[in-house]
Structure formats: structure tokens, C-alpha cells
Amino acid sequence: MILVAEVAVFGFIFFQRIKEIDNLAKEKLYLAEINPSQVKESNLKDSQQTEIPSIEGPINPKLVGSYLAPGQPEFVFVLGNYAYLADGYAGIQIFDVSQPENPELVGSYDTPGYSEGVFVSGNLAYVSDKSGGFLILDVSDSKTPKEISRYEPISAEGVFVSGNYAFLAYSWWGYKIFDVSKPTLPQFVCEEDLLEETEGVFVSGNYLFLAKGEKGGLQIFDISDILHPKLLSTYKAPGYSESVFVQGNYAFLATEIDLKIFDISSPSQPLLVSNIKVPGSAESVFVSGQYAFLAAGKAGLQIVDISDPKKPKLSVSLQIPGFAERVFVSGNYAYLATKDIDALTKTNLAIENAGHLYIIQISD
Q1: Between 342 and 81, where is the model more confident?
Q2: Within the chain, where are the H helices?
Q3: pTM for the whole thing?
Q4: Most exposed of 15, 64, 137, 251 (fewest Cβ within 10 Å)?
Q5: Which of 228, 258, 224 is nearest to 242 (CA)?
Q6: What is the tens place of the pLDDT at every residue in 352-362?
Q7: % helix, strand, coil for the chain, step of 5
Q8: At what angle do helices 2-22 and 24-33 cross, to 10 degrees?
């Protein structure tokens, strides 16, 4: 029975890969339309860090608001007065969080597959959809988001947008890069098959950072020539690496075992300067000022003081019901996407109301 199951799983993965290879010709057609002289300078900027004020000084987190999600929350992104929730088979949910104590669901979009990630810039939401591909939504009217483009032949875990480019964590095999200067017609630029799964993606300046899943650790690419990214370094880490965040000269890698902090002053030779074990498992990390905020699975929200990156220390723990999957910090609030414990083993099923969006006030 075990052998049959293994063969079935291998067959499914092989079939998916064949489908994607069949579509590679279509992708390469896009390359013929790109003028290399126009894209050699990648015009990248770190969108998250430039738009979000840093948290400094003492903190005293307290839960102030929550909402029972329609689906299975996987990721949350906040911009202005709106929180965007990648909600599994329920697609994208949009909340008005102008009153954090009473978040209001104002709009939604049912994506074709299982929504894993979302990144919002201006009036556009970029969605990574496992089995459903890469979607771009017009969210200028939050009540009625509209799909303006879809690229289907991929299975995507995470998405990060910087300048004119979208970077997708490409499930089992690596990453893909798209030119999104024309959102209605995103153009495939390049990809890399890295053999192992890719869970998290982050861009800072001319560098691409990947969290590489099971025993994959951290990978750093030079993307100054967007057509030909160059692998600079790989740091193999034990445990499952699911999220990476960069602030200044440091990269923060969330693993199921701990939070690892790297000095990336020389991206080709990242130096592990410290690691800290926290209660639960570090599912994702978001850094603001002198604090690293961790969605820590069954241990809720863990906040680490990183004022000295070589000597991080656990500052505050806040127990939250369920399993904390993702954290996003904006202003004086942290937003948690959580799943119900009972739903963790049923992500292949379209379960309703299987998690929450929680809003935590960080300081008084």
C-alpha cells in the first residue's frame, strides 16, 4: 500500500511538471518581446520597507479585533486601511481595518485554486495561487475586485513585487520572474529550477532572497541583470524554512526550529550571526525597527528584540487561538492569519470558516 501511494504521489508531481514544461514554449515567446536594454537595469525597490513605519521603543501587545475567515487563511498583507487575506480555497478576502476593533469584510475574489500569497501595490493585488497560477486583481474598488490578468501554467506559493517585476516562489521547483509593467499582460522573464520547493520570497535592492523549504535554508541571487539572475550563496539550514525578511544588512529566516539572523553585508558570503528558539514554530517573520514579529504556529505571536542582531532576545509572547501562519505589521498593529488546529491536516479540502484574521495593537 505504501509503495502504491508513493507511486501515485510521484505520478502526480511528474504530470504537473510535464504540464509546465509543455507551457515553457509559450513562456519563451514572451522573451522575444522583451528588449534586454530596457530591463537590464531592474529598477527594483523594497516596497514593504519604504511604506511601513518602523516600530521602536517599548511594546505591550494586546488583541483588539478578529474576524472568522470564510476559508483557510494562509497569508495577510496590509496597505492603508485595508487588509488582504489569502484564504485558501475561498480566494482573496478584503477587510476594512480602519477600525481595528471591528474589522469589516468588504470584498472578495474567488481564485481558481488555493490562494497562498498576496502582495498589494497601489490599486493592484498580485496573487500566488497554488494550482491556479499567478493572478493580478484591480482592487481600486475594494468591494468589487476584478481580475485583469491570469497566468495559469504554474503552482505558486508566495509573491513579492518590486518595481516593475513580480517574483514568485514556485512551489516545488524554484522561482519565476514576471515583468508586470503592463498588469493586463504580465510577461514571463525568466525562471530557475532549483529542484527543491520554494516557500518564501523577498526582494531588497538588487537581491532576491528565497526561503527554501525542507532543509533548503536560504538562497541569495543577484538580480541586477533581471534576464540572468545569478546565484550568489546557499545556506543549508535544518528544519523547514518558510519565510525570509530583509532589513538593512540583515536577513531573518523563519524555520520550524528557530529564527536565524544573517549578516548579508556581503550577499555572496552571508554570515549567520545568531539564532533564537521561540515557543512553537517560526512559520513567518516580519521585521519592524528593533523587533522581529513571528507567527509561531500553536504559540501565537512571538516578538523578539533584535536591537542587537547578534544577541536577540524574546521580548513578548501573546497566545492566540489556533495556529498562526502569517504575520504582517503596519503602523501600531500586527495582523495574524491563523488556521484552526483541526483544519491543519485538511488543506486539500475546501473547508469553510477554518481560521481567523486577528488584529493586535502593539503598544499603548
Answers
A1: 81
A2: 2-22, 24-33, 36-39, 47-51
A3: 0.85
A4: 15
A5: 258
A6: 888 999 999 99
A7: 15, 45, 40
A8: 30
